[in-house]
Amino acid sequence: MQLKLSGVGKSYGGLPVLSDISLDIASGEILCLVGPSGCGKSTLLRMIGGLELPDEGEILQVGAPPEGSLNPLTFIFQDFALLPWRSVAGNVSLALESHRAISRAERAAIIADVLSRTKLGDFANAWPKQLSGGMKQRVAIARALAVRPAVFLMDEPLSALDAQTRDILMDDLIELWSRERFTAVYVTHNLQEAVRLGHRIAILSRRPGKIRRIIGIDTPIGARTHQDPELLAIQEELWGLMREEAEAADKELTHG
Amino acid sequence: MADDDAQTRPVPYRGGGFSARPMRSVGVLTFAALVAVWELGSRYGYISNLVLPAPSEVIEAFRDLWVSGTLWEHLGASLYRLVTGWSLGTIAGIAVGFAIGLFRPVRASAGPLVAAIFPIPKIALLPLFIIWFGIGEASKVGLILFGTFFPTVIATYGGVDNVDRTLVRMGQSFGLSRWEIARKILFPGALPAILSGMRITAAIAIILIVAAELIAAQRGIGAYIQMAGSLFATDQLIAGVLVLSALGLTVSALIGALELWLLRWRA
Ligand SMILES: Nc1ncnc2c1ncn2[C@@H]1O[C@H](COP(=O)(O)OP(=O)(O)OP(=O)(O)O)[C@@H](O)[C@H]1O
Ligand SMILES: [Mg+2]
């Protein structure tokens, strides 16, 4: 399943937030979205996921979602969005309960499977409150895996975590992608994450967000390292593009 | 510097204090001392029996109440009114509060009405309720129902309003229906607020039932206290008050246990 955005625009109460966004996201591709604060990245992601309607343009899903996908467009949120009154297994279960076709036994099997894939097998009965930030986000990833998405929509999934946990989870995500070859739109402020994970990186300008540049990275995701000079050069280039936008956006915010 | 003995001393301690750690034994001791002073004061004539009976007399009055079975008659009557009125008021309040939290037209129509009626001291409506429902049980149950309904409504929709909206977004992003979001996300999310509302309405219900029974009842703890007062039987009067205190403590312990169990995910 592919996604096709053409001429997408959005404003909130007369304030244009996004304008003329056109993008094609191929199956199995990870597209990273970077841009200054407030440029509309989260808004764009919500529109792609059907949680909000664009004012202009259209967002199309091309081709049928893969067989057995329960929730083709699945979010992973920055603040995890776990229900504190449900255990780890209960949180995963929430995503499956509304699907009548899945029996109780099947549901339990799916939960056990995704929890073991995210190394949470021993924590099925723990409350979210008892988990570290990294484990909470792994629960959210397990919940997403349970509905077999065609596209992952991730809004700064690692930014609430400390640096070490972030590295570990990044490795987990890379490993996951190598196995499952999912499609993803990945919003981040962290350029290092963008060059580690993105097949392409789209840089948005400050509000109203437009696509300023799209940079492709050829190195296979599995073969990328922290020290790769080519990646560092791209990161430098991205920072150059981002810097002016971020500075200008920063000034804009201070005088309203 | 460091080896200059005159200048070397431990860092002065200035922490500690301001702790909320319980000191249970002190509470018991205070209580026992107070009762002892009161008993001695009564025995040696410093406290007139008409003003305040000795603790031993209160215990005697309580024993009478217990043995003769009047305690159960009065307590039973009060409990019946409390439980029915409070349960009905709470159930109706949760339903209406939830509807206000979920549906904007309901909020727009019922919200201001609730806000207007909420501050009325409900006991002022007892005469009206007696005219409407008669002097019997219905007017008292109705009063408690009415008195617990509004705070419950307010606690419930406040709780629903306070549920983190990203959780609602999350539910939508997994394709949950509106009904599922209400049942699996908004209701459990509002439960802590609903339970603390219950704590308040239980206290309100006890106040209302005693007030109503003081004014117009033949049976009930309030009626018993009223009778004792008109006979200047202060020992019975205080015994009745002690029963109320025990009732309040029991109710609050029950709700505490309910909270502990329903909100165990918070521990
Ligand atoms: N529901 C809303 N109502 C009104 N304005 C909104 C709403 N959601 C977002 N905005 C505004 O739209 C703009 C873009 O918001 P958005 O959250 O998409 O930015 P972002 O790029 O994700 O920023 P950040 O990097 O800080 O997460 C901001 O100015 C924000 O204030
Ligand atoms: Mg954002």
UniProtKB/TrEMBL annotation, chain A:
- Keywords in UniProt for this one? ATP-binding, Nucleotide-binding, Transport
Domain ABC transporter, first and last residues per copy: 3-231
Residues folding into a coiled coil are none
Q: Which InterPro entries match?
A: AAA+_ATPase (IPR003593), ABC_transporter-like_ATP-bd (IPR003439), ABC_transporter-like_CS (IPR017871), ABC_transporter_ATP-bind (IPR050166), P-loop_NTPase (IPR027417)
Q: Which domain of life is it from?
A: Bacteria
The protein's GO terms of the molecular function aspect are: ATP binding; ATP hydrolysis activity
Q: Does the entry feature the keyword Chloroplast, yes or no? A: no
**One of this protein's Pfam families, by short name?**
ABC_tran
Similarity section = Belongs to the ABC transporter superfamily.
User: What is the name attached to this protein's record?
Assistant: ABC transporter ATP-binding protein
Which organism does this record belong to?
Oricola cellulosilytica
TrEMBL record, chain B:
Which Pfam families does the record match to this protein?
A: BPD_transp_1
- Primary place of residence? membrane
> GO CC annotations?
plasma membrane
Please state where this protein is localized: Cell membrane
Membrane topology annotation: Multi-pass membrane protein
* Regions that span the bilayer: 79-101, 113-135, 141-160, 193-217, 237-263
At the top level, the lineage of the source is: Bacteria
The family database entries (InterPro entries) matched by this protein are listed as: MetI-like, MetI-like_sf
What biological process terms from GO does the record include? Answer: alkanesulfonate transmembrane transport
Q: In which family does this protein belong, per the annotation? A: Belongs to the binding-protein-dependent transport system permease family.
The record's function comment reads: Probably part of an ABC transporter complex. Probably responsible for the translocation of the substrate across the membrane.
List the protein's name: ABC transporter permease
Its ancestry begins with: Bacteria, Pseudomonadati, Pseudomonadota, Alphaproteobacteria, Hyphomicrobiales
